[in-house]
Design brief:
Helices cover about 45% and strands about 15% of the residues. The protein has about 300 residues and is of the alpha/beta class.
Length: about 300
């Protein structure tokens, strides 16, 4: 609670300064994000003709907890070092750190722009997009976005599908790490899409909270599985088993992570896998705050 109050106070100071800054000719928050997005797009590595490249968009929705920021930070490092995606990553992060080390915020408009910007650089028929969204989910299947006291919003499955379709990107791996995220599958499904969801449509997932370093799904899929395989589908199956074992041991109701494999996407992913040599395993740099407090 204290950390949330500190974050809110820092952001309140920032927001209160915006009107006077605008009067002085300084940029607004929206202009700031646009500048950061434009710089990110300009720096994206070009696609390689005849070669299937991976482009990555990470999206950390709830800025009141570190855990979602942690996972997108790690995703960027993992994809850069192990999955040959250096220079092909866009990160949108709701967190106070996005003002210290400037990054665009995780809003629906910025997500639309990120997907469109990546779509203009990649070969939209040959390359693969990995979209990783991590945040809280609601029982009526919305992704919760907030950066208190700056904004609060949600993203629906229909809005997410519209943003993906508008980008023109054909080959998609969409990972939704949130409670009730299985509810996104029907709207996102296509022959060229792999969808991974952290929970069944009517089940919560676990591992968020102010003391958590990683969600159960984020740790099981990225840290524990993708460090041993480059196959997103095999990593999911491994993660599903790990999560089930952990939930049973901790007496939590099963979250039952979900997968939907489009008819054409597996072949495209195999083609992408064959085109690079994976790097070494990447350690996860964050520890649960409870574990840190207990350490001597």
């Amino acid at each position: 609670m204290l950390r949330r109050a500190v974050i809110a106070a820092l952001l309140l100071l920032f927001v209160c300064a915006l009107p006077s800054a605008a009067q002085d000719g300084a940029e607004s928050l929206r202009e700031r994000d646009q500048r950061l997005l434009d710089a990110t797009f300009a720096a994206l590595a070009p696609q390689q003709p005849g070669h299937t490249d991976l482009y990555v968009v990470g999206f950390a929705g709830d800025g009141a907890e570190d855990v979602f920021r942690n996972e997108v930070d790690y995703l960027e490092t993992l994809m850069t070092r192990r999955f040959a995606a250096k220079g092909r990553i866009v990160s949108l992060v709701n967190h106070v750190d996005s003002f210290r080390t400037p990054r665009p915020l995780a809003t629906l408009d910025n997500l639309r722009q990120a997907l469109a910007g990546v779509g203009k650089v990649m070969d939209r028929d040959e390359d693969v997009l990995l979209l990783f969204l991590t945040t809280h989910g609601t029982p009526d299947h919305r992704l919760y976005l907030q950066l208190p006291p700056v904004f609060e919003a949600t993203i629906t499955p229909r809005q997410l599908r519209a943003a993906l379709d508008a980008s023109g990107i054909r080959n998609r791996v969409v990972v939704v790490s949130a409670c009730y995220s299985g509810g996104f599958i029907p709207k996102l499904r296509s022959p060229d899409t792999l969808i991974l969801a952290a929970a069944r449509k009517n089940r919560p997932s676990f591992g968020c909270g102010s003391d958590s370093a990683a969600t159960y799904f984020g740790r099981a899929w990225m840290v524990d599985s993708l460090n041993h395989t480059t196959d997103f589908i095999a990593a999911f199956e491994s993660a599903r088993l790990r999560i089930a074992e952990r939930e049973k041991a901790e007496d939590f109701p099963p979250s039952q992570p979900q997968i939907d494999i489009g008819a054409h996407i597996a072949a495209r992913l195999r083609q992408w896998q064959a085109g690079f040599t994976p790097g070494a395993a990447v350690p996860y740099p964050y520890a649960d705050k409870a574990s840190e407090a207990a350490a001597p």
